[in-house]
Structures are given as C-alpha cells and as structure tokens.
Amino acid sequence: MEHRKQLHKERVPYRDRELVVEGPLPPEDVSRLRMHADLDAFRRPDEQHKALVEIAGLPEGRIIVARDEDTIVGYVTFHYPDELERWSESGMEDLIELGAIEVANEYRGYGLGKRLIRVAFAGGQLENAIVYTTEYYWHWDLEGTKMSVWEYRRMMEDLMKCVDMVWFATDDPEICSHPANCLMVRIGKEVPLESVERFDRVRFRQRFMY
C-alpha cells in the first residue's frame, strides 16, 4: 500500500492572532515544537511529545498539529493498530487507526478538532485506507467539559462525522463493556472489497468461529 502524505495547512483566527493547523508533519518538524502543558490526557506532555515524534517517523504514521507559534495546542495521530489489540490481527496494510485527538483546554471552542481531522483527510490522501477509531468513555474529559457521558459521545460522533466516519457494530469486548463506547470507521473510496471483508472478520470474531 502507498502511504500518501500531502502537507496541508490552515490558519485559524484566535483572539488577536492566528493558529496554524498543519500536517502530516515529518518527525524533525514535530521535534522542533513544544507541547502545551495541558496536553496530558494520555501521558505527561513531554512523554506525549516523544510519542508524536516517533509516530511521525513511521511509514504509515501521521501527526497533524494545531500550533500557537511553536507550541502544539492540539494534535491528532494516525498509525497502525497496536499489536496487542484485535485490530492488528488481520495484518492489513490499509487499516489505519485514528489513535488520539486532544486540544488544550484554553483553545477549545474554536473548531480545532474538526480542522485537525479534515486536514488529515485533505486531498484524498486516505482514500486507499480503512480508518477507524475506538472511543472509550474512560478517555473522555467529562470533568473538564462538564458533559455527561452521552453528551460527550454525541460530540465525538459529530466530530468524526465531519470526515464521513460512521458508527460500525462490533463484538469487541472492550467496546461492548459500556454502551457509550463505540467504533467509528471510514472506508476510503479506493479500498478493495477484499480489505472490507477482512475488516468485517476482525469486527465480528464470534460470527466466524462456528
């Protein structure tokens, strides 16, 4: 599979200046930026910064950032599924995970989440891939946003729908462990039927056991 990476950039008005949303960035560009201190949803900011640099260097890896001058204030990651997760079992080269999306608290409310995701898909660069994301309520900032689980779930669905990702059923135990958890998927226009069928077998492990 060809991993197409086409740099796209948008400018977003913010108070008395502009923010830049751009990517996918090469690792050297990510390493020159610093992380906002509030970007700690998954790990400490300095550790997350190292992870972003590593992902940016992967053949399939994509890092899209929103930055305020040289400070990363939001990001989204794309990479192959973790080898410990069921989604990696198929060994599909055209199955890519939208792994994490995070925006610093003071920069929320400016539509950065949607802009980050739209830049990632700009120019048809992911039309030859199945892109999925697994949403788990325990990763959500319910306290910071003062949202209920279901309000946050609707917000995440709306966010992913901006690039035509839709809800897909699965029998994955982690997703099924809470009704707010969900699997959202976008199947690119160039993805062959064989890949879609392989992905279906991963989504429903039980169906194909008997």
Automatic annotation (TrEMBL):
Coiled-coil boundaries: none
Domain N-acetyltransferase, first and last residues per copy: 20-192
Superkingdom, taxonomy of origin: Bacteria
InterPro entries documented for this protein: AcuA, Acyl_CoA_acyltransferase, GNAT_dom
Signal peptide: none
Protein name, per record: Acetoin utilization protein AcuA
PROSITE patterns documented for this protein: GNAT
